[in-house]
Amino acid sequence: MRRRVSDIVATTAAAALALGFTAMSVSAEQQEWIVDPGGAYEATAGTTVLTNTANGVQLTCSGSDASGVLEGSASGTPAQLGSIENITFDDCSGPLGLTFEVVPGGDEDWTINGESYADGVTTGYIGGVVATLTGTGCEATVEGEAPGTYDNATDTLAPAPIEGSVHELVVTSVDSGANCFGLISEGDTVTFEASYTVTPGQDVIQQ
Fold first, then answer.
1. Per-residue pLDDT for 85 more than 50?
2. 20 to 30 A from 204, CA-CA: which of 5, 20, 153, 173?
3. Quick one: how far is CA 39 from the chain centroid?
4. For the chain, which residues make up each domain, given as ranges?
């Protein structure tokens, strides 16, 4: 009886191990990404909007330009599909007629990351975001991750709120001497919405 139990245990373990390798193999295949053609890109957006979810206050910029490099291939979930090496924001204003300058910061490039793919649309997030908002009577820093999508059909990278996303941007500091008239406070969560047209157009595929 002991031998039979041992045999059953050994057979079950072997089957489980084989099943595990099969599942891992399938999972690995699903985590492979292709970006075509990849390489250097430029991206241009019209109006961009930063919204403080605590009170609905919005900071609007008339346009934004970005550039960086996209990977030809990547793996993992999430997978880093590229970087944003340079980004600028134009003619930014808020309530009370306030004007702002938005200056990217941080020691690393912002990253473009893919998490899931369906029907030509990649869902993911822009990571490593650090930006300082500076204006009359206001200086604050926003950091974190901005959820969004990339659509192969329109070559559009669109940061926007996504229900259920764990990625968020948070106000990490507000200068005590320029407290933004109480419109934004440390710890507030903000959303970033824009629609960047990417040139050259890219096809992103998860295999």
1. yes
2. 20
3. 19
4. 1-30, 33-206
User: CB neighbours of 116 closer than 8 A, spacing ≥ 6?
Assistant: 77, 122, 123, 124, 206
Give tens-digit pLDDT for 100-124: 999 999 889 999 999 999 999 999 9
pTM, 2 dp? 0.84
- Using CA atoms, how far apart are residues 74 and 79, in angstroms rounded to an integer? 6
Dist CA 200 CA 186 (whole Å)? 38
Closest C-alpha among 150, 128, 160, 159 to residue 41: 150
On whether the CB atoms of residues 50 and 191 are closer than 8 A, the answer is yes
Burial of 168 (0-12, 13-18, 19+ CB in 10 A): middle
Are 144 and 128 a contacting pair, CB within 8 Å? no
